[in-house]
Write a structure and sequence with these properties.
Blueprint (H helix, E strand, L loop, with lengths): L6 E5 L3 H13 L4 E5 L2 H9 L8 E5 L7 H10 L5 E6 L3 H13 L3 E7 L4 H14 L3 H4 L8 H9 L3 E10 L5 E12 L3 E3 L5 H6 L4 H20 L5 E7 L8 H11 L7 E6 L7 H13 L3 E7 L4 H6 L6 E4 L1 H4 L6 H16 L3 E5 L4 H9 L4 E3 L9 H15 L1
Parallel strand pairs: 1-2, 1-3, 3-4, 4-5, 7-9, 9-10, 10-11, 11-12, 12-13, 13-14
Antiparallel strand pairs: 6-7, 6-14, 7-8
Helix pairs in contact: 2-3, 5-14, 10-11
This protein binds ligand C2E and calcium ion (CA).
Length: 401
């Protein structure tokens, strides 16, 4: 969604600041802007007869009559889909608790900006909204369409294979890991990409069999790679919905240990592409996996919703910056800010930062200058089957000496 298609509501009691914000938004290309001087007026705007669905509300916290917190509570109770940007002069700790509160109300929080607000900060938040609401890789579905029955048949017949895409350390230039990405080797259609089957499996709560197929094959690959002298970690994607099964962590641990692989060599990438119902079960599973030594990665960082943010309470070991931020970021100022602050946050949390979707030398150089830890993307290699990947590792390490 482009900025000129987005409906924005500015809630700010100070006339001068409100006008300034509206002008900044106009300078960024926004055309549909409403404004209100406090929470009460904002609710009236939202509930008025010809009201458009509001995409973004930019909300001050300290306001007379109805303050920002009460306004956010009302939005939460109405299960509003509006994304929120909080701005205030309050101190950082207080702002952090207001941010937590709005997440607890189930709001989509784009971020918190301390006043005085700059155009660049505002631009970065709007960009984040635009990117979150395109999500092309999850929406686009090219190629043949399959029914759930056809997909399940393929899964039972174990026709899905992991393809491996290397993750390279930006400093040492060595391969440090690989992500296992599911490919359906279809008897008629050949190699089918995950867009054609993952969503349907997730929506019908039938991910389990595919997940464990991928786990079995990826763990076997991990052994083979270690035995051929490539001590790299293997990352496996885990749908957030699978985490609501309380036995998941134990079952994963059992598979990995039985294959003679150390859980420390396995990273689980958790991605949010569907709503999660049971945060407590997910937290227990994640804590147990971490306890057994698995690495935990927040996948597609920056595009998830509130439930994913609640999970950040768990000790993750890696933050994966979504490719929608990395593509074009070398020439786009707002995207650059998002990527840079994500890397910065990863460092502060003492977790590894990994950028996906690295397609050019320029992307690589920019990430290196930002002290990002590792890169993954077509610039290094596309995902490939196991035997090609083993050859790739051998050639790549030969090139480094
Ligand atoms: P993801 O985890 O974000 O994986 C990265 C996707 O970006 C992969 O698409 C990969 O092929 C693609 N990619 C890698 N480098 C580049 C690049 O430089 N440029 C561009 N434009 N794209 C790049 P893929 O393999 O089609 O997977 C799509 C999504 O399907 C994955 O996104 C992941 O969310 C899901 N997925 C794949 N395998 C599994 C699985 O076994 N289990 C679960 N739950 N989800 C899976
Ligand atoms: Ca992933």
């Amino acid at each position: 969604m482009k900025v000129n298609e987005v409906n924005i509501l500015v809630v700010e009691d100070d006339d001068f600041q409100r006008e300034m914000l509206v002008n900044m938004l106009r300078s960024l290309g926004a055309t549909s802007i409403s404004d209100a001087a406090n929470g009460q007026q904002a609710l009236e705007v939202l509930h008025s007869e010809n009201a458009k669905p509001m995409d973004i509300a930019i909300c001050d916290i300290n306001m007379p009559e109805m303050d920002g917190m009460e306004f956010l509570r009302h939005l939460g109770e109405e299960k509003s889909a509006t994304s929120i940007i909080i701005l205030s002069t309050l101190d950082k700790a207080l702002l952090a608790s207001v941010a937590k509160m709005s997440l607890a109300y189930g709001m989509k929080l784009l971020g918190v900006i301390e006043k005085p607000i700059s155009v660049a900060q505002l631009e970065a938040m709007i960009f984040k909204y635009e990117r979150t609401n395109i999500k092309p890789k999850k929406a686009v579905n090219t190629g043949p369409k399959f029914s759930l029955e056809e997909i399940l048949h393929g899964v039972h017949a174990k026709q899905c294979e992991p393809f491996f895409q290397p993750k390279v350390d930006l400093e040492t230039n060595r391969i440090v890991g690989a992500e296992a990405l599911a490919r359906w080797i279809h008897p008629e259609h050949g190699v089918v990409a995950p867009y054609a089957f993952i969503n349907l499996l997730e929506q019908s709560s039938k991910m389990d069999e595919l997940t464990f197929n991928m786990l079995d094959k990826s763990v076997a690959a991990s052994r083979l790679l270690h035995d051929s002298g490539h001590a790299i970690s293997i990352s496996i994607n885990l749908s957030l919905t699978s985490l609501t099964d309380i036995s998941l962590a134990d079952r994963i641990t059992q598979v990995v240990k039985e294959a003679g692989v150390d859980p420390q060599q396995i990273v689980l990438e958790i991605t949010e592409s569907a709503a999660m119902t049971d945060v407590a079960f997910a937290l227990e599973n994640l804590a147990r996996l971490r306890m057994h030594g698995f690495g935990l990665s927040i996948d597609d960082y920056g595009t998830g919703y509130a439930s994913m943010q609640q999970l950040t309470r768990i000790a993750f070991t890696e933050l994966k910056i979504d490719q929608s931020f990395v593509t074009d970021f070398a020439t786009n100022h707002a995207l650059r800010i998002i990527v840079e602050s994500s890397i910065d946050m990863a460092h502060k949390l003492q977790v590894k930062s990994v950028a996906e979707g690295v397609e050019t030398q320029e992307d690589w150089d920019t990430l290196k200058s930002m002290n990002c830890d590792a890169a993954q993307g077509y610039f290094i290699a596309k995902p490939m089957n196991l035997s090609s990947f083993v050859d790739f590792c051998a050639e790549y390490s030969a090139r480094q000496v």
